[in-house]
Amino acid sequence: MNIGEAASASGVSAKMIRHYEGVGLLPPASRTSTGYRQYNDKDVGRLLFIRHSRDLGFSLEQIGELLDLWQNRGRSSRQVKALAQAHIAELGEKLEELQEMRGALESLVHCCNGDDRPDCPIIESLASEAAVRSRATTTHAPQKESPAKRRQFAR
Description:
The chain is an all-alpha fold. It has helices at residues 3-10, 14-22, 41-55, 60-71, 77-111, 121-139, 147-154; strands at 30-31, 37-38. It folds into two domains: 3-75, Orthogonal Bundle (Multidrug-efflux Transporter Regulator, Chain: A, Domain 2); 79-154, no CATH class. Residues 1-69 form the HTH merR-type domain.
């Protein structure tokens, strides 16, 4: 099947199929005499595996590890479970960051009248944060700030 058919069968766009091939998650496709990529059912199965892994938020590197484990029938499920547990921990950290960002935004929205006047605490907070970061980068190397610090600054 050609790349369009493989895309339809897997739910992965042709562009992403080429990308996955480029980064090594999918082996290089065989080519027709005219140079068109050709895929088989095994390739589509691999694309479905990649798509389901992406749907769960695994990184490309993690998906590479999962693919290796999937192909290795001698693996222990312990390895797969450990990888999934590490991903759960990462998702928990991201969830905390998102909740902190939401809290900061809710606080700013609460302070904004949302009327016809030009004064807006949301814009003022964003502008003052930009000014602080601008001064910090001219005096020393930039430092990554936690969402909690950003929220504290927004208040």
